[in-house]
Specification:
Layout: H1 3-10, E1 36-40, E2 46-50, H2 72-136, H3 142-154, H4 159-162, H5 171-181, E3 191-195, H6 208-221, E4 225-231, E5 242-246, E6 251-255, E7 258-269, E8 272-279, H7 297-314, E9 321-325, H8 326-330, H9 332-338, E10 349-354, E11 362-363, H10 375-378, E12 393-394, H11 395-402, E13 405-409, H12 415-421, H13 427-432, E14 437-440, H14 467-480, E15 490-494, H15 503-515, E16 519-523, H16 529-541, E17 547-550, H17 555-564, E18 567-570, H18 580-586, E19 590-593, H19 612-622, H20 626-635, H21 637-649, H22 654-670
Parallel strand pairs: 3-4, 3-9, 4-8, 9-10, 10-13, 13-14, 15-16, 15-18, 16-17, 18-19
Antiparallel strand pairs: 1-2, 5-7, 6-7, 7-8, 11-12
Catalytic activity: [(1->4)-alpha-D-glucosyl](n) + ADP-alpha-D-glucose = [(1->4)-alpha-D-glucosyl](n+1) + ADP + H(+)
Protein name: starch synthase
Organism: Hibiscus trionum
Length: 672
Amino acid sequence: MSMATFINSAILPSPSRCFSIPRTAPNAKFFKAPSLHCVRKNCGINGLSRTPSPMDNGGPDEEESSPEELSDDEVEPKNNEIWRLFTEAQKNILYLDRQRVKAVEELNKTYREKQLLIDKIKQLEKKYRRKDSMVLGGLVSTEEASNLRRMVTDSKVSLVDVFAGPLEQRDAELLAELRHFSGGRKRKGFHIIHICTEMEPLVSVGSLAPYITGLSRALQRKGHLVEVILPKYASLDLDEVQGLREVEAESYSYFNGQLHGNKIWTGVVYGIGVTFIQPLYFSSFFNRDRVYDYPDDFERFTYFSRASLDYIAKSGKQPDVLHLHNWETAIIGPIFWDIFAKQGLGNTRILLTCQGFDSQGLDEPDKLALCGLDPGRLNRPDRLQDTAKTHLVNILKGGIVYSNKVIVMSSMHSKGRIIHSMSHGLERTLALHKEKLLVAPYGFDNSTWDPSTDKFLPVNFSAENMRGKDACKVALHQRAGISTHASSILVGCIITEVSDFDLEKLRAAVQNATRGGAQFVFLGNGAVPTVNRTLRYLQESLEDSNVKFFTRYDEELSHLVFAGSDIILCHSFHDPLLQVPLKALRYGAAPVLEASADNFRYSADHDHDITRFSQFMRSTFGLMPLSQVLDEIRNNPSTWETKISNAMKEDFSWDSECYETHVSAYAAIKSL
């Protein structure tokens, strides 16, 4: 029953049923109507009830129950006024009820449309992944499968609309649909297969995981076809995998002179097709607690690399680019050119991405034979032989030599500095292959970290309307229990296990800043002992009412720290894991280096081959210590506000410079 219906039944909706006035009897006596009041029944909807009369309980004496006489002049206007109020209340209630029903209908309609779209996308994704099992099962040739994949990449037609049928279709029926669809109009797009060891949110150890997911989603949004191949670790988080299924056809790969069986699993993560390879005979390779740092890592990842290529070749995939990552899959470079380029993959090119050069994969040369390579031919100075330890082969070096392009992920450093100061013994190799070396910055997910839509903020804001940031600053003051001053400058700092602050310098910088009126909020992660010790040291040495410490990490609070702070202290501008500088820029806070081990700003680069992000940070914030930023805010507030507003408008997401660098690399190697 609606609220209007309930109240209508209680208040007697017709004038003929209440307060009837016999107009032909001027001397008639009238009784005062019993008063109505609101009561709440069972803590539910307000109802109306008549105030109990003494007569309801048998009644007292006649004198006490005598009705009150009213004159005609008094009764008529009072009765009309009562009815007018009831009528107006009815109209308002009915209007509100209609609006509520309309809003609920709109909400339900939107929900149904969303679910329909999600269901169609899931159906399409699952159907597309079934092509691999068709090839492995012999239903379709490898050549036709490759053409169908290219059709998916190039088509301008909406695949979701075309393949909206039930998933229960037999493979033969689905294949017929795909063949019928293959005559659609075309557009250009690359087919990229990432062969890697991490992907967020499935398995994440370092910067590789968010990079794989962020770049892949950006590529998909721009019309490219992206797939990812991963080992099937026992520790995988499969909650976000849609349509996970085992490919029924057998899959074998070469290792140590024999063919070994693998289980192949396919699914979809954030719209990206993902394949998992699970060794059967060597089942212990990926059935472990950790991802890395085992004595047999060379064998584990060499097996996975060779199995990935065997799977790609047998399933008929002919990608434009095989995208390799770090030393763990760098061996695919020599395997591909020595063995698989002649097996129908002659048009495929190789791109290697390095998150860094501190881990390179050194091992005995004879182990190259495990995956079918010739140790005698590859253990040479210009190929895989390590420069310093010449009795060992260097897998990352081999990946650099055998790749068509190499991308080094570094938000701040130039190509020259990477080669000469950060190569960990690979300087000669990188210098020799300098022309195929590119530098790309990390991006970040600007849909999750967006102050104009952030659900964690009390008030949203943007570069065009910054009023909400003031409200967020007040909210952060209140949350931290710090006194609010209109002229106060609030500095936020996130402390994690990867932070590399010089604590003595940080303590001194905070003390100097608080003397000038600045306020600080520190957010850490109490679950990490090293972070706990850092925060405890700072808290004990900085006994100041204008400095607040939160030892337990809170997602909502982390968003509020970025939104409410004027400045965010950063341990480095090259921050692929936390992405603190990128989030600070997005939320209108100045990222400032202070007491950090990152001293890039004090060293001159030998060339100008740096990223746009690096150029922006160096020219805008890179050379400003905390004390100078505080002075700028106080002395030139309008100029500073313009600088912050302009910084907020910069696009440093995965879809921007990171995407552009990779696509230019793909295009360059495809033209070779």
